[in-house]
């Protein structure tokens, strides 16, 4: 599941080869932007804000969001793609490198990207992350379930489904617990530490163990024994949001 750390890493990979470089070829494989040609334009910056990735070119940016299945691949020019061509949404090339965005949930060419994304809450992976502002945002609605609030990118940017499940487990609270009954500063601090700890890792782990099947406490472990108390992990949904990318996991014994 792509979360803030995934996007941060994708931005770092693209930045390394593209920032400051002139594009020798570009192709949006999205009908609306099919005529946009960035050949000869310079990439000024590559950055992530929460789960959004921006490639700045002049006063516009290529804005992308990975959603469930998306990925950015960066490789030397001429390398065979690791995903089918029909999944590509954008292709960018410099003299020696190619970046391809596959199955991007959002892929657009937008003016004034900072205004466009100004609705996002503080970015957990921003070195200047404003924890106090995130706490203020999250506590504004004390009746809202913490599991829902943590995913709301308007309040705080970067937490996806994996981190919300894991953070709730590590704080011992059920995702359905109202925000007003949760130690929000501690929750925000934990979310930041989890994302920062994983921002440069190739394998995400919230347990400290990178072995397959041991990387998370509850996420993706429905029906299997809790790593702490052996109680079977519950798999559920909150409210009426039953989409697969919103499925929740928690331990009914460790979390209350
Ligand atoms: Zn447990």
TrEMBL record:
GO terms for biological process: base-excision repair. Keywords: DNA damage, DNA repair, DNA-binding, Endonuclease, Glycosidase, Hydrolase, Lyase, Metal-binding, Multifunctional enzyme, Nuclease, Zinc, Zinc-finger. The keyword DNA damage applies. InterPro entries: FPG_cat, FPG_N, H2TH_FPG, Nei2_N, Ribosomal_uS13-like_H2TH, Znf_DNA_glyclase/AP_lyase. CDD domains: AcNei2_N. Its EC number is 4.2.99.18. Residues 217-256 form the FPG-type domain. One of its GO terms (molecular function) is zinc ion binding. Residues 2-96 form the Formamidopyrimidine-DNA glycosylase catalytic domain. Belongs to the FPG family. This is DNA-(apurinic or apyrimidinic site) lyase.
């Amino acid at each position: 599941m792509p979360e803030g750390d995934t996007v941060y890493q994708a931005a770092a990979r693209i930045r390394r080869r593209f920032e400051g470089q002139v594009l020798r070829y570009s192709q949006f494989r999205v009908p609306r932007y099919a005529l946009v040609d960035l050949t000869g334009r310079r990439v000024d910056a590559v950055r992530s804000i929460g789960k959004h990735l921006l490639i700045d070119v002049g006063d516009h940016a290529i804005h992308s969001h990975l959603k469930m299945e998306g990925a950015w691949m960066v490789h030397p020019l001429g390398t065979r793609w690791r995903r089918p061509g029909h999944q590509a949404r954008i292709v960018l090339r410099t003299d020696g490198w190619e970046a391809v965005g596959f199955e991007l949930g959002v892929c657009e060419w937008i003016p004034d990207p900072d205004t466009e994304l100004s609705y996002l809450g503080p970015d957990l992976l921003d070195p200047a992350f404003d924890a106090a502002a995130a706490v203020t945002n999250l506590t504004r609605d004390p009746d809202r379930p913490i599991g829902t609030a943590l995913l709301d990118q308007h309040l705080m940017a970067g937490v996806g489904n994996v981190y919300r499940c894991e953070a709730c487990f590590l704080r011992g609270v059920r995702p359905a617990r109202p925000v007003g009954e949760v130690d929000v500063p501690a929750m925000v601090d934990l979310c930041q530490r989890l994302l920062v700890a994983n921002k440069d890792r190739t394998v995400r782990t919230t347990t400290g163990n990178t072995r397959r099947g041991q990387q998370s406490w509850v996420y993706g472990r429905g029906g299997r024994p809790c790593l702490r108390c052996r109680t079977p992990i519950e798999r559920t949904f909150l409210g009426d949001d039953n989409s697969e990318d919103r499925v929740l996991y928690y331990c009914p014994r460790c979390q209350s």
